[in-house]
Serine incorporator/TMS membrane protein
Amino acid sequence: CCAAGGVARCCFCCVVPLRLSVLTRLAYTVGFVLATTLAFLLKHYLGKAVAPALPAACGPACYGYLAVCRVSLALVLCHAFLMIATVGVRTSRDVRARLHNGFWPLKILVLAGVTAGLFYMQDALLYPYWIAALVFGCLFILLQNVILIDFAHSTVRGGAERWLWKYEQTGNNTYRTLLVGSTAALYLFALGGLVVLYANFTSGGPSCRSTNTWFATASTLLVAAVTVTSVHPAVREKSPTAGLLQAGIVSLYLVYLTASAVNTNPDGCAATAAADRRLASATTAVGVALTFIALGYSAFSAGSSGRGLVRFSSDSLDSPAGGGLGGGADGDDEADGTAYSYAFYHLVFVLAAFYMNDVVNNWASLAEETAGVGVPQMAVDKGRVSMWMKAASSWLVALLYLWTLVAPVLFPDRTFS
C-alpha cells in the first residue's frame, strides 16, 4: 500500500495544493488500489504461469489463491506495524509521525521485501490465513455499514438538499431530474438484482430453494421496510431530510450483500454455470469498488467535515488543527494537532487488507481433499460460513439504517446527529 503511495503523494504535491493530512491519506488509498490490482493479476495469471513447477498439494487455483493471501498479509503486517508505532501521536512534530507521513522510499522497499519474502514461506503455513481474513473481513463489512450510513445521512443528503433548493430557487428541471433520476436508478438496480436472484439462484435442490429464497425474500422485505420508513410522516417530521435517495443507496448495498452471500452458497444453486460466473465477477468488482470508496470516504471526510470516521479514539479532537483548518506555508496542517487518529487509520487499512483477500478470492475457502493417488491436496471451494456472515451483514445494515430513522421518533427528547 505504501509502494505506489509515495509516488502518488509526490505527484499530487506538485500538481494540487493539498494539505499534508489529505495528501498522506490519498497516498495510502492510491497505494491500496494498486496493491489490490496486483493481487487480482497474481490470482488470475500467476498460478497458470508457474503450473508445471507447482507441487501436487497446491495446484494453479490454490497457488493463485495463496498469492492473494501473501499480498494481503504483507499489507496487514505493514499497516499493523504503523498502527502500533503511531499510537498516541498528537502532532506532526512527533518523530513517530514521520513514519506515517514520510519515509516513503523506505516503506516502498519494506513492503516489497515483505511481499517477496512471503512467497518463500511454505504454503502450508498460509492455509489457515483464510479463516483470519474471513473474521476480520466481516469486521470491515461492519465498518462499511457505518460508513455507508454516514455517507447517506451527510454527503447524499447534502446533495439532495442542494438539488432541491436549486430547483425551488431557479425552477430549472435539471435539478429535479437529477434527484428523481438518481433515486429511480438506484431502485431499478436493486430490484433488478432481486429479480436475477429469484430467476437464477432459487431453482436448485431443496437447500437452494430454501436458503437462497429466504435470503432474497428477506432482502426484498428489508428494502420495502427501508423505503416505507424513510417517507413515513412521523419520520419526516423528526428528520425532514430523510428521503428515498438515501434509502435507495442502502437498498442497493443490501441487495449487493445478499447477492454476494448467494454466490458463496456451496450447494451450487445457479441455474447455469454462466450465471454463476457472471454473479461472481459482478460481486467481486462491486466489492473491490466499495472498498476503495469506503477507504476514500473515510480518508477525506475527516479533512472536510471535521468529524470523519478515521478520527475515532483520537486525542487530537479538541486540538486546534483537529478540523484540518490550520497549516503553515509548507502545507502541514497538523503541526498543532493531528486531523485524525493515525493508529485508527492504519487499523482501518488492516481490516481492509483482510477484506481485500476475501473479495479478490471471492470469499472462497481452502479445504483439504485427497487426490486419486492418495496425495493430500488443497482445493479452493465456497464456504457456508462466509455465506451466512454476509447475509447477516445485509440484515444488519438495514436494521442500522432503520434505527437511525426511527430513533428520533421513539426518543424525541434526545438529540441525534
